[in-house]
Specification:
The protein is built from 13 helices and twelve strands. The chain is α/β, with parallel strands linked by helices. The protein has two domains: 1-108 and 258-365, Isopropylmalate Dehydrogenase (3-Layer(aba) Sandwich); 120-255, 3-Layer(aba) Sandwich (Isopropylmalate Dehydrogenase). A ten-stranded mixed sheet has the order 2-1-3-12-11-4-5-10-8-9, with helices on both faces. It binds 3-isopropylmalic acid (IPM) and manganese (II) ion. The site of 3-isopropylmalic acid has 7 residues, from helix 5.
Length: 365
């Protein structure tokens, strides 16, 4: 298979971790005889520094002309502490999502058994959890009109949804539910918000087209609680942009760490694959970041972007083996971890690559 992949490392730990996601793709291409070509582009603070723009046209052009995008993270402490700055790294990410029509953000909560103890939730509650979030990604307060009064003392963000936006992501979530355990929970705040009432009505309509799927509707506040109380009750979770942003950070604790979770944003064209974690300025450049979310994002690219299931599985199995053998990055180490097996970003990346190549050799022999 021939594919052209754009790598956008971005800011903070983005470049450190994306190196390993890309290396995993190169190794898979080698092993399975695929031809993957790569290009690189700027986004976020890294791009603002060079040309004052978090998403230059050149990056957008390259993105549109690629078959998939591997992204790192955007953000910088300087902006977090100064809300008055008008040009912000995150604008680049939001714009590329909109421009590429990436309306569905898939966030699988992939729980490796070896990490049951890394979570702050009891292993008995966690074991067997397998959730796939569908977060709407190009609507909601993220893209609604923003206002600020002249005296600067009043501000608003419009929470807005159009029916077609709910329909298209609902279809994607139901199609996934059909392939899984045929359970779907749609999360909203329909007891208060009109946009959520539209959301619920629309999901109820789409549900009729998938009669085999058992649909549940839940309010966001209750969902946030149930997710910690009994995560196993969820399978496919369908929700809006802001609710999904918050719920999936919460759900990352089920997997042990934000450093473990990958995501796929898909829609009209080129798919976009990225860790759910951010730029993590506090650990940038210290060889402390967990590269597994980027490596698992590469696996999602192979599976969802290119339909290469076997190749994706090799990567997931290699990550599983690393964990089974007791190796950890700092974020997923716990009291029982052998201190000699706590690895830096680079050492962890190299080890996964080694296991990928071993798995391919065993498969082919
Ligand atoms: C995410 C991030 C982004 C979001 C930020 C960086 C704009 O938190 O991908 O979850 O809020 O969508
Ligand atoms: Mn987020």
């Amino acid at each position: 298979m021939k594919k052209h992949i754009l790598v956008i490392p971005g800011d903070g730990i983005g470049p450190e971790v994306t190196t390993w996601g890309k290396a995993a793709l190169e190794q898979i291409a080698d092993a399975f005889g695929h031809e993957f070509s790569f290009d690189e582009a700027l986004m976020g603070h890294a791009s603002i520094e060079v040309n004052g723009n978090p998403l230059p046209d050149e990056t957008l052009e390259k993105a549109k002309n690629s078959d998939a995008i591997l992204f790192g993270a955007v953000g910088h402490a300087k902006y977090d502490n100064d809300p008055s700055l008008k040009v912000r790294p995150e604008q680049g990410l939001l714009k590329i999502r909109k421009e590429l029509g990436l309306y569905a953000n898939l966030r699988p909560i992939l729980l490796f058994d070896e990490l049951l103890n890394a979570s702050s939730i009891k292993p008995s509650i966690l074991k067997g959890t397998d959730i796939l979030f569908f977060r709407e990604l190009t609507g909601d307060v993220y893209f609604g009109e923003k206002t600020r009064s002249e005296d600067r003392n009043t501000a608003s963000d419009l929470m807005i949804y159009h029916k077609y936006e709910v329909e298209r992501i609902a279809h994607k979530a139901y199609q996934a539910a059909m392939q899984r355990s045929k359970r779907l929970c749609s999360v909203d705040k329909a007891n208060v918000l009109e946009s959520s009432r539209l959301w619920r009505e629309t999901v109820q309509e789409i549900a009729k087209l998938y009669p085999e799927v058992e649909t549940e509707h839940m309010f966001i506040d209750n969902a946030a609680m149930q997710l910690i109380k009994d995560p196993k009750r969820f399978d496919v979770v369908l929700t809006a942009n802001l609710f999904g942003d918050i719920l999936t950070d919460e759900a990352s604790q089920i997997a042990g760490s934000m450093g473990m979770l990958a995501s796929a944003s898909v829609g009209d064209g080129t798919g976009f694959f990225e860790p759910i974690h951010g730029s993590a300025h506090d650990i940038t450049g210290k060889n402390l970041a967990n590269p597994l979310a980027s490596i698992l994002s590469a696996a999602l690219m192979l599976e969802i972007g290119f339909g290469l299931k076997e190749e994706a599985k090799v990567i997931i199995d290699a990550v599983d083996q690393v964990l089974k053998e007791g190796f950890r990055t700092n974020d997923i180490a716990d009291g029982s971890t052998n201190p000699y097996k706590v690895l830096g970003t680079q050492e962890m990346g190299k080890l996964v690559l080694k296991f990928i190549s071993q798995k391919v050799i065993t498969q082919n022999s």
